[in-house]
Design brief:
about 35% helix; five-stranded parallel beta sheet; binds magnesium ion; about 170 residues; binds zinc ion; alpha/beta
């Protein structure tokens, strides 16, 4: 039986970690630009003992617009910049499906990817948050039984992260 004791923050990717301004799908490293406050904010969360997960829908794979290899290249790029700042993502979960092609169990608003991390890493749901810019992110978090913070698309991430750190201190 897994003991669930660890703190975690789940992060949506496009529109939350990186700007999706002018793009419907981001699948090239050169189109990946961090939103303000992200690197600093993740560093603060990690320092406070939170595991960090990215949970992202990548339905463009099912639609044939880009491939798993493209997603890997973008994630390698994202992680290399974070690593340069001493930040590491504990695991990235992505759903490659899209309901227009095939139904699946993982695409947000399904809590599937969040639940996977909760089990794999022994996350305490009472100390877990999801930050996202979409209604689907909030719904996935609620279905998984963790707290959700809805942000405006591409806004500075620091206020959301301070909200988590403040409630962590109490
Ligand atoms: Mg988003
Ligand atoms: Zn899926």
């Amino acid at each position: 039986m897994t003991v669930h004791t660890r703190k975690a923050v789940f992060l949506d990717r496009d529109g939350t970690l990186n700007s999706d301004e002018g793009h419907y799908y981001i699948y090239k490293p050169e189109d990946f630009v961090f939103n303000p406050g992200v690197i600093e904010g993740l560093k603060r969360l990690q320092k406070a003992g939170f595991l960090l997960f990215v949970v992202t829908n990548q339905g463009g794979i099912a639609k044939g617009i880009y491939t798993h290899e493209d997603v890997k290249r973008v994630h390698d790029y994202m992680c290399s910049i974070l690593a340069n700042h001493g930040v590491s993502i504990d695991k990235i979960y992505y759903c490659p499906h899209h309901e227009s092609v095939e139904s699946c169990i993982c695409r947000k608003p399904s809590p599937y990817m969040i639940n996977q991390a909760i089990e794999e890493f022994g996350i305490d749901k009472n100390q877990a948050w999801m930050i996202g810019d979409g209604k689907r992110d909030v719904e996935a978090a609620e279905a998984a039984g963790i707290k959700a913070i809805l942000i405006q698309k591409n806004q500075n991430l620091i206020p959301a992260i301070e909200q988590i750190l403040d409630s962590n201190r109490q």
